Amino acid sequence: MTKRVALITGAGSGIGRAVSVVLATMHSSVVITDISSEGLETTKNLIKQSGSVCESHIMDVTMGDSVSSIIAKINETLGYIDILVNCAGWDSLMPFVETDEVFWDKIIDLNYKGVLRTTHAVLPGMTSQNWGRIINISSDAGRVGSSMEAVYSGTKGGIIAFTKTIAREVARSGITANTICPGPTETALLDEIIEAGDNSERIISSMTRSVPMKRLGKPEDIAAAVKFLASEEASYITGQTLSVSGGLTMA
Known about the structure:
Layout: E1 4-9, H1 14-23, E2 28-34, H2 37-48, E3 54-58, H3 64-77, E4 83-86, H4 101-129, E5 132-137, H5 141-144, H6 150-170, E6 175-182, H7 188-195, H8 198-210, H9 219-229, E7 241-244
């Protein structure tokens, strides 16, 4: 594989960390971003063990200036970004009627508009070199819905539709855009949700029992799918939505 520059958001933990480590094995220069410097340092140390080039930046995907300035720096130091993986996201379980517009705005700004901001910033570079891979981490909640996650599910469904549209717009430029939808996965966010209340733990336990493989996903399960979609072998796959859920959803 040709030397590529990969940018991963939400790389300080969980799926983002696993994706970063895997892409570092693909002859890529890996740029990891997050709002947590502590998490980034841990991820960077793991990547260094593979001998790969790694840059880390504090980047807030809810802030347009933060996204544009960091990506401009990357373009200057490493060149245009070839592979973009949007992993940054957040949620908190609660009935929709108990949410308010402050909560809606937080979820939408991070989970949905964050993907818009990074994609908007990297596409000109990808188009100029006629090659690119955009891989957005959505959720099975965006495909089939999820109780207690109405706004989150809406943003994840929006990512699926957005990615399909981008795939159509840039296909002639050698750029693919695909979505990966994890089922329940062992991450720090899942731990945070479980600790949020008594009902949360019951819901997670119920979801685990519903998975045909009878286990939660691991970040490495998602990273393996990202690795394939970022490869040359996936050059004819675009606009697709892949569920990685142990069979929880099969449609």
